[in-house]
Recover the amino acids of this structure.
């Protein structure tokens, strides 16, 4: 990329942040760490990961901030049910028919 952005996959980004890929996936899914899933794989910008680390630095010598996941948020990735590990279930056929106002067999 000509703009100087270096992209990292899930494992590379996890190594950069010194955390497990599973924890990184959870934080990315919850929106705590910036990441995208343009296809089936997570992609992270190195600059965003560095910004995330900078945000954890404490001010005035205080203890480091915690970034624990407070609550489960739905993942908005295109393929989370199969590879992201988020709790999303696809609608049933009757739900689709109802939403699309399709005729149903009685």
């Amino acid at each position: 990329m000509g703009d100087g952005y270096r992209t990292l996959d899930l494992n590379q980004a996890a190594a950069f942040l010194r955390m497990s890929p599973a924890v990184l996936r959870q934080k990315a899914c919850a929106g705590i760490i910036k990441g995208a899933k343009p296809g089936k794989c997570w992609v992270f910008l190195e600059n965003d990961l560095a910004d995330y680390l900078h945000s954890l630095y404490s001010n005035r010598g205080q203890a480091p901030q915690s970034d624990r996941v407070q609550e489960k948020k739905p993942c908005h990735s295109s393929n989370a049910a199969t590879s992201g590990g988020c709790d999303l279930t696809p609608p049933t056929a009757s739900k689709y028919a109802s939403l699309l106002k399709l005729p149903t067999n009685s």
